Each structure stands twice: as structure tokens, then as C-alpha cells.
Amino acid sequence: MALSTEIFEVSSDSRQDLVRWLTPYMPTCIALCRRIQFGHFTPGSRLLSSVNFADPAHEGHANEPWIVAFIDRTCRPETEVWIAASWEHDRPADDSWLPQAESLVKPIIERIGKIKTSPQDAGVVVNSGRSTELPSTFNGSASVDRDHYLQHLQNEQIALFGSIHSSTCTILNRLGLVDPKSAAVSNLPYRKYMFDLRNVTPRSLPPGFRYGKVDPKDYPLVMSRTQIPRQDRTLIKLPSVAVYPTDTSSTTPQPIAWGFLGLDASLTTLHVEPAYRGLGLAKSLSLKLFSEDMNMYWQHNPITGQGDGHDEERYGHADVATDNMASQRVCESLGGNWDFEVFWMRVVLA
What we know:
Blueprint: E1 8-9, H1 15-22, H2 30-38, E2 46-49, E3 67-71, E4 81-85, H3 86-89, H4 98-113, H5 119-122, H6 146-150, E5 158-165, H7 166-174, H8 183-186, E6 190-196, E7 209-212, H9 219-224, H10 232-235, E8 240-245, E9 257-261, E10 267-272, H11 281-293, E11 315-321, H12 325-333, E12 337-348
């Protein structure tokens, strides 16, 4: 039987069915799955799938190749598209999977290309300050500056795809869908670190510090410390933890360290000011985020086995550039492991 290449829109009523469908493919599909679980869907958000979840018989297609995409083009210049596909989780050692993968990637990109940005999205202004500490910022690459992340902003026919598995990256390149002007950056690998959060617990800070949240008044400070574009409208949605000194007379103290969980629940924008490094604050912030702000993802989590619930899926994740050694050390200190790479790609939609 020929593989169907029809693409369906997943309704709000079918989102939990989709999450259950994705669970056996964890942790490979974690970025897409967490983005769906996080919610905060805008009127322009779309979920597209090669599986028709409105059809009660969709379970019968579980052994066929599939692809799913979440799209929100109002997020420009941040990540607009997340994708997961069956071949990312378990694919043959030979190239037999490539034709089927290409036959699903093509139509879903065509559908994404029909989702237009709104006029206000094209006019987004992002804080243009640069940090002098770029090699130490979490996630980003020391070899990429802020301008690289903004290159596509004025061209609505180019969308930023985030946390794309290396196998799907291969397909996008084979099909010639990667913006040639940014191919070098689009093919910059990031290590996907996975964390087992079933037994994670926070730890106390050293004397002289306290935990808090990141205050919106400090967003300019946060954005000045990373070359990755961040916007107020995004940051205000995200769980955050900050560290403040207790020995200050200021009524509005600034944080000296902070971290967020991204739209896809990845550990992101983790930063410690230079004067306070070496105290274990990055690890403490991460554990605080993982232990207190990930519970929403377990509330309706499918059980992955037949046990008493301890085998419930409880993964955390982070994406770190391969040349960002400091952030890699933080992930490893948290018990993180990586076994595949992901990419942020500018994809040409038309």
C-alpha cells in the first residue's frame, strides 16, 4: 500500500491523543511534545500531522512513517516551527527511509508555507545589545552573534525551525529547503542533553543569596547577556528562577544569576554574572527550575510501562552548542546525557 502524504490539522480536541501518540517516541520528540503540553496557543498557532487524529482508526497506522509539526509564526524572530517524525526515533541503518521521509516533509512544508505572518510580526524590534561574555551564555555558540539570529526577520518566506533532529535536518538539506544565505548557521549542531527528573530535588543556596523570579524590569539585562533574541512577550510566559544577593540596600535589586524553561520546556538562557561564577549557582538554578516548574508536564502524563507509576516519563532537556564547553559542563554536572544533535534552521517555505 502506498504511503499517504495527506496532511491534517490537529484540533484542540485531539491534542491529548497526539501527546499519547508521541509518548513511545520520547525522548527524541521531546521538544515538540513539551511545546504542545505547554499550551499558550495563539489564534495563529497550528498543529499539522500526517496522522488524522480525528479518525477513530488512526491507531491502526502506528507502524507507518509519520510527521507532526507545531507552527506559530507570531514568534518571529524566535523559533516558529517544531517538528517530530518517526524516522528520528528508530530508522534503518541504510538509506531506505529517505524516500518516505522526503514524501512527508515536502507536503508539510508546503502547508506551513501557507500560514502567513501578520504585519506586526514583521516589525518586531529586539533588544540589540551584545554581551561581552558570549562564550559563557547558555545554549548559544561563541561563533554566532545576534545578527545571525535576525537575518531572516524581514522575509516571511523564511521561517526558523527549532530543535530539529539531525535526520530531519538531512532531509531538509536534501530537498534544498535551507536558506542558502544562512546555511552555515543553520547547520550548526547543538547537543540535545536529556535529564531524568524522577528523583530531582532542589538544593540550598550559599549564604548571602536567595531565590526569586525574574522581574520584567530586568528583561533588558537578561537580553543583554545572550546573543539569542529574546522578547518580553515570550519571557513573561516562561517559568523562571533568579538568584539575588541578600546583602543589598537596594529596594529593587538586580539578579546576579537566572534561568528559564523555554516554550518547549528546555533549560534556556541560564546565566551567572562573572563575579559570581564558581559557586555552583547555575546548577542550583537548574535544579530549582526542574523540581518546581516541570510539574505541569506530569499532570496528564501517559505511563510508559506497566509498573506502579515510577516508570512515568519525566524528562527534562537542554540544547547546547557544540563549542559551548561551559554550558556542556553544567549539563553534565546535572547528570545530563546526549546521544543526538539538533539544529536551528532557516527553512525556505516558498
